[in-house]
Specification:
Structural class: alpha/beta
Radius of gyration: 15 Å
Strand content: 15-25%
Helix content: 10-25%
Length: 138
Amino acid sequence: MVERWNASVAPGDTVWHLGDFAVRVGAGRAATLLGALRGTKHLIAGNNDGPAIRALPGWASVQDYAELEVAGRRVILCHYPLRAWNGQHRGAIQLHGHSHGRLRPLPRQADVGVDACGFAPVRLDLILPRFGRQSQHT
């Protein structure tokens, strides 16, 4: 997975990891893995990201939820698939992990966890067009 990550991510890219970073590995191994990955890495913590994972020095930020503005569109990031999110009916999209590709998405929602996406990061410039044009009210 490190090779797939680094083949998809340039050193100057920003990556939002949507949780469950290094399940079933110790903090030392997790720190080594995080250090081997390209990009500026932000963690949206998942249910398996305990205090040791959250405290790793390789994260640019750690939070449970984030809202971004990307190409004029609101993007909601959470480890969990939400039933409702800010701007949902005005074109905002929600990206999540947690469900391992087994949950039918709502409109403008996508599971971007690695196990649902070929075990590599998903580029926003490739996923946003899937949702069509944004609303003028975003």
